[in-house]
Structures are given as structure tokens and as C-alpha cells.
Amino acid sequence: MKNTLDYTFEVSLSSQKFNRKPDRETEVGRLRFYKVRTDIEGMTKAIANGYCYAPIFNLSSFGMRDKTDNNFIYSSFISIDIDHSKVDMTSMIQTLQHKPTIAYTSCNDGVNGECKYRFIYCFDEHIEGCQEYYNYVYAILEANHLCIDGIDKRSLKASQYYNGNGCSNCTINTSHIVYSKHDFIDYYKDYYHINCTDDKDESVSENHIYTPTYNMNLNDTFVDKQFEEDYWNMKMEDVITKYFDTYPNIEHTPIDIPNDDTPYILFPCDYIEIRRYWRKNKDGRAVKIKDGEGRRHKLYLNGILRRLITPSITFDNLIYNLLYELVYYISNYDAENIIGKKDIFCIAKDVMKADMTQYNNLKGTSRRYMVNPNYCVKYGMTKNQVKNIAAKQLRGDRIGELYDCRLSDKENVEAMKNNGLEVSLSTLKRWRKDNCITMYMKEK
């Protein structure tokens, strides 16, 4: 949470403004919205001028028919519609622990003795997806000890639009407080899955009803409460350091390490690993994935790979591993959308709910072996040097498996080719010499 005057965000504003509440029958259906970037002052002016507003959809210009849950992309704010209240807006704000960024009375405020107003909470991160939007509405209500029955249920819909108030009686309160997702982390739960599984309220889109798929691991909550507390309250690097010996960083299928005299380590046929791209310079660091390169999708897939490697992985271990991924292999530098611990938490929950049968194609690897680091240490050699030794030895072992002393060299070369091994005649002869095989059939 921060007070700032130097904050801008995107919002969809209507092309038409109203000095009254627009008529639902003749005007609302014809509304058209355009995506604009504004600041808090600009937003308050738009509201006071009677413009309608909505979050960001997949079209920069759209009408009411396009304003759907499926087309919703993200929102920089949560808008909560307080309806039929006996407490006026100013008095209500004074009771709130978390003040709204913008609060304004609606056109019908005071009608029939009822107070009606809206609270807008601006965030410095995008709220992505209908489910996350739904959950943050609940989190804000919980943080302020407000009852869900006191708001218009359409506030739960990410695709909902809101009228401004161009009437002369409009009252606007601006705090210039901009929140982060973490500000509500103590109150954030997966309310959507909790409520929408059985809730058939017409105000919630039927597309939101959650239907679990088969082959799912539903253990998607923290097991160790101390780890949970540390995860949310400590710095990322400190969490990684403290729990380094508690939660193994699972990056590949366990493999048998041979003795120090074997230059290679063979991979099993079902070997799975998380592949990295490394810098070619001397620092030896992995190339971090930048904004715009599918960072969240990569984190999700790496979580899936860890479940494939260790199907019994706990939620705590998975979330630790994904945090490790974020710190060491993902870049937030100059990113428009910062990935934080809340994002890691949500990704981990999605991974634990995934149907793993859809990811069988991720099993296996094109690599047959890796250099044995213990061999490098024992003989004082670099990995590249040992790689050549290992390749030659494995090739020789394969030749030995296929070599038939009843055949001539040319016939052996052809037979090996038919079995997927390309060997030149000179290579085969050197192999025979190195292995002291001198008795063989003469060339025909």
C-alpha cells in the first residue's frame, strides 16, 4: 500500500457521458467503450462527468455484447457497488481499515432513504482472470469486515461495467492509496472455488462454475503452518535460504551415479528434466526468462514437470521450488507485470489441480547421458574433455553390442547402419584394433 500521485493505469471508458443514470432499455445496450490510460485524478473527473467505466478486455474498442467474461483480460482496480445501505458514504469510509482509492455516490444515492455508492480500489499489479477478480472482491470485504449481503452481487463479476455520476449531487472522495495484492494476502482465499462449486446465483456467470477434472491432486494448501507464515512474511531469498535443506529442488528424475572411473551417467528411458539455457560467457549463469517470453506459462510447465518427476510432491515443496525458479531463472527487471509470491501461490494451486494425463508428452529426453562430474574431479579434466571421452566410450560400447565376428567389416558397417548406428569403415577398424580383435572374416 502506498500513497502516490505518480500512478497511471488502464481503464475502458464509455464514449458517451450522462448527467443522469443511463436508461437500461434504450441507452445501456448501445454503450461503447474505449481503452485509455489515466491517473486517479483523471478517473475521478471521468466519473464526475458521467462516463461509464469497465476493466480491460481483448478489444481496444467494444460494445456491450463484447463485454463478456471470456473477453476479460485484466483489471487494475476492484469496483464494489454498495447498495441499499443505511450508512452514508463518508461515515462508512471512516470505519474501513483499508480505504478505497476512489469513492463516489451513485445517481440514486438518497432515494427512498437509502445510501448508494461505489468504492474503487486501485492496484499496482494487474488482476488477471475472472476467478482472481472474484477472490479479491471477497478479500477486500473480509479485510474491511464488510458483509457480502451489503453489496450488489454483480460486483463479483470481472466483466461488470459501472456508471459514473454526472448528476449535480455527486460526492467524490479520493485517498490516492494504491494497493498491492500482498496487502490483502491475509484475507485472500480461493473464494471462487469455495462458493461457485455450489452457488448457482444468477449474478455469477455459468461459465464460472468450477467442475473438477479427473486425476487431480487436491492437496493444494500449505501443510507446514510455519512455512506458510514465513512464505508470506519473509523475503523470497530468505525463504529459499531457510528451507534449502527442507524442500529439495526437484529438477530431474533421480539417477544412479556410477563410480568415479566411469566418464558418463546414463539416463533412464523415462528420464525427465527441466532444461536451462546458459550464458556462453564465463559467469556460467542461466539465461533468465524476461517479461513477454511467457514467464507464467514457463513456471506452470516447470511445476508440471516436477509433478511428473515426483507425483507425490507436496504443495509446500512445489511452492518452494517455484519460488526458487522465480528467484534464479525468471526476470522481473523492467517488467510491466511483476511476478510475486501471490502469483507463485496461484500457479502452484493450478499445477496441483492439473490433469497429469494431458502432459505425458513431456516425459523423456533426447539426451542419452551426461558427463560424470566425479570423473572430471578425479582426473582433473574439463567437462568438454570428458564429454569426448564419454562419447567415444559409449559409441564403442554400442559397436561392441552390434559387432558380428562372422561378418566382414563392410557387412558390419551396413548391419550397424540398419540398427541406427552410423559408423565409417575406418572407425570400425580402429575399434577392432583398440579391442584387439584381429580374427575376423576377410573382405569378400
Radius of gyration: 31 Å
Strand content: 15-25%
Query: What are the low-pLDDT stretches, counting only 5+ consecutive residues below 50?
Result: 197-218
Number of helices: 13
How many strands? 13
Helix and strand sequence? EEEHEEEEHEEHEEHHHEHHHEHHHH
What structural class do you assign from the helix and strand content? alpha+beta
Distance between the termini: 86 Å
Helix content: 25-40%
Main sheet makeup: 7 strands, mixed
Shape: elongated
Determine the mean pLDDT.
85
Description:
With 444 residues, the chain is of the alpha+beta class. 32% of the residues lie in helices and 16% in strands. Strands 1, 5, 7, 8, 9, 10 and 11 form a seven-stranded mixed sheet that branches. A four-stranded antiparallel sheet has the order 4-2-3-6. Helix 7 packs across helix 9 and helix 8 packs across helix 9. The longest helix has 20 residues. The protein is elongated, with a radius of gyration of 31 Å. It starts with a strand and ends in a 10-residue tail after the last helix.
Topology summary:
Blueprint: E1 2-3, E2 8-17, E3 32-39, H1 40-48, E4 51-54, E5 56-57, E6 61-63, E7 72-85, H2 89-95, E8 102-105, E9 115-128, H3 130-143, E10 172-174, E11 177-179, H4 191-196, H5 225-233, H6 236-242, E12 264-266, H7 295-309, H8 315-329, H9 341-353, E13 369-371, H10 373-379, H11 383-402, H12 409-418, H13 425-434
Parallel strand pairs: 9-11
Antiparallel strand pairs: 1-11, 2-3, 2-4, 3-6, 5-7, 7-9, 8-9, 8-10, 12-13
Helix pairs in contact: 6-8, 7-8, 7-9, 8-9
